[in-house]
Amino acid sequence: MSITIDFSGKTVVVIGGTSGINRGIAELFASHGARVAVASRSEEKVADTVSALKALGAEAKGFAADVRELPAIEAGLAEIHGAWGEFDVLVSGAAGNFPASLNGMSANAFRSVVEIDLMGTVHVMKASHAYLKKPGASVVNISAPQAFLPMPGQSHVSAAKAGVDMITRTLAIEWGAEGIRVNSVVPGPISGTEGMARLAPTEDAIGKVAASVPLGRLGTPDDIGHACMFLASDMGAYVSGAVLPVDGGWAQSGCGGMGMFLGKLVAQMEGR
Ligand code: NAP
Ligand code: COA
Predict the structure, then answer these.
(1) Residue of the CA atom closest to atom 6 of ligand 2
(2) Number of the ligand 2 atom closest to the C-alpha atom of 98
(3) How far is it, in rounded angstroms, from Cα 144 to Cα 132?
(4) Cα–Cα separations (whole angstroms), residue 6 to 32, 68, 140, 188
(5) CA torsion sign, 85 to 90 to 96 to 101?
(6) What is the pLDDT of residue 130?
(7) What is the pTM assigned to this prediction?
(8) Which H helix or E strand runs over 185?
(9) What domains are there in the chain, each with its CATH number?
(10) Which ligand is nearest to the CA of 42?
(11) pLDDT value at position 5?
(12) Ligand 2 binding pocket includes 95 (Cβ within 6 Å)
């Protein structure tokens, strides 16, 4: 079997692909020949990302939609399918997060994160299934270490991302017979991202997190993109239902005590 990481002629859709890690993933696929579509809430971020993808020499499209709105996601994906045909790769990574204890957030605050991360994934899976290449499509859901490691201030994210990983594992079975592979990638702490800015808001905190990673550094969006490309390429042809940490070993070390650190940060923010 010849192995290729050339995505020429392939259609890649990245939901939540207009900033941070997911935009890095979109750009990596674009620079390896794929035509790439991105979606997120902000028209401006979508337009900016589409321009950047085109500047990399890729065909690119985008649409603005909130993953909490199933009809909007359905309409956007139908348009991409109408223009380009079946999707070879779908990356679903739209998410929201803020550090707050369960007592320190309203039920609606908890619901917002569950609606974006978990129900958003449900909507993206349901809206895309008809358009995924059968056999051959590869779906990657972007999870988080909170899915399996509890951290104070992250009950909403833990509940939502644990659900995302169980959707991954269930769909690997339900969609496997159609030749669709479904996996989760679990990023560790990734430098220069909104997620890191929210959970490690100072240089000191970032330094402590980096030092707590067994490989001794923060990750980059490319680190996550490379894992997605592996899963989406022929090299990943027999991988389905995996929940793959890409984190320099961070989760194995209990995320370096991130839970204790976050507990103190949240208590300080909430005046306790
Ligand atoms: P980010 O830059 O804020 O990216 C989030 C993306 O999702 C943006 O494109 C955002 O664009 C979009 N989005 C947010 N809410 C949305 C909604 N309701 N509907 C549609 N799109 C929405 O964050 P990031 O830190 O790079 O995180 C990216 C992914 O990696 C997330 O799934 C996160 O849980 C995961 N992760 C991150 C880290 C980290 O270190 N950063 C670690 C582990 C896991 P709009 O604002 O335009 O909607
Ligand atoms: N602490 C406690 N509650 C908070 C909060 C915080 N830091 N930030 C928001 N909330 C609450 C709000 O008060 C609101 O609850 P209420 O209606 O009971 O007052 C609820 O969360 C929803 O907030 P709202 O701003 O209306 O939601 P939104 O849909 O506009 O935005 C968020 C969703 C809150 C997740 C927002 O942070 C977001 O858009 N994030 C996307 C980017 C991101 O988080 N990137 C990192 C990914 S890892």
Answers:
(1) 98
(2) 7
(3) 24
(4) 6, 33, 18, 26
(5) positive
(6) 98
(7) 0.98
(8) strand 181-187
(9) 11-269 (3.40.50.720)
(10) 1
(11) 85
(12) yes
Gap from CA of 68 to ligand 2 centroid (Å): 13
R_g of the chain, CA atoms, integer Å: 18
Residue 86 CA to ligand 1 centre (angstroms): 25
CB 175 within 8 A of CB 200: no
Is residue 55's pLDDT more than 90?
yes
Exposed e or buried b per residue across 121-130, where buried means at least 16 C-beta atoms within 10 angstroms of its C-beta:
bbbbbebbbe
CA quadruple 228, 229, 232, 233: dihedral sign = negative
Ligand 1-lining residues (CB < 6 angstroms): 16, 18-22, 40-42, 45, 66-68, 93-96, 116, 142, 144, 187, 189-190, 193-196
**Structure-block tokens of residue 88:** 């070879």
Instruction: Answer whether 109 contacts ligand 2 (Cβ < 6 A).
Output: yes
Q: What is the mean pLDDT of the chain?
A: 97
- The span from the CA of 35 to the CA of 59, in Å, is 5
Q: Is 3 helix (H, G, I), strand (E, B) or coil?
A: coil
Q: At what angle do helices 20-30 and 221-232 cross, to 10 degrees?
A: 50
**pLDDT higher than threshold 80 for residue 186:** yes
**Ligand 2 contact, 262 CB (< 6 A):** no
Tell me the average pLDDT across 203-215. Answer: 96
